[in-house]
């Protein structure tokens, strides 16, 4: 089970990075998101359960958001709908890293976020992500 999950998660990570790299043209044309948080340490958040829960609660409208969380919350619907086509390279890498980590280690949080930001399951279907895996 863990091997399958790791494989699926790795495939999703690789596919996401490859797919997102192909959309760099729009960002180069000035249609991208702000770069203000491009150097934000997402690994620090993902490694700390208390901080991660705080950010997830922010994204789920359960708690007020810190500035980075508000930025993510504001762009997340568009980023999901456009498959991160407006993301620059740093944002693509952060998105792929977060997706990979949430799928492997924080699945309940991942699917809570999916219920809000991907209610039809369209994005999950594209990557063949099932909740019961």
TrEMBL record:
This protein's record includes keyword Signal: yes
Organism domain of life: Eukaryota
Record keywords, A-Z: Signal
SUPFAM superfamilies: Chemosensory protein Csp2 (SSF100910)
InterPro entries per the UniProt record, alphabetical: A10/PebIII, OS_D_A10/PebIII_sf
Signal peptide, first to last residue: 1-24
UniProt name for this protein: Uncharacterized protein
Organism (species): Psylliodes chrysocephalus
């Amino acid at each position: 089970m863990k091997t399958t999950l790791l494989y699926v998660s790795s495939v999703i990570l690789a596919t996401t990075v490859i797919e997102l790299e192909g959309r760099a043209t729009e960002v180069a044309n000035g249609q991208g998101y702000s770069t203000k948080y491009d150097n934000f340490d997402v690994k620090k958040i993902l490694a700390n359960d208390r901080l991660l829960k705080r950010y997830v609660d922010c994204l789920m409208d359960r708690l007020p958001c810190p500035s980075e969380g508000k930025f993510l919350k504001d762009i997340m619907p568009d980023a999901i709908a456009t498959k991160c086509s407006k993301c620059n390279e740093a944002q693509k890498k952060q998105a792929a890293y977060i997706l990979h980590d949430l799928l492997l280690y924080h699945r309940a949080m991942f699917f809570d976020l999916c219920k809000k930001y991907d209610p039809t399951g369209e994005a999950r279907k594209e990557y063949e992500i099932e909740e019961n895996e």
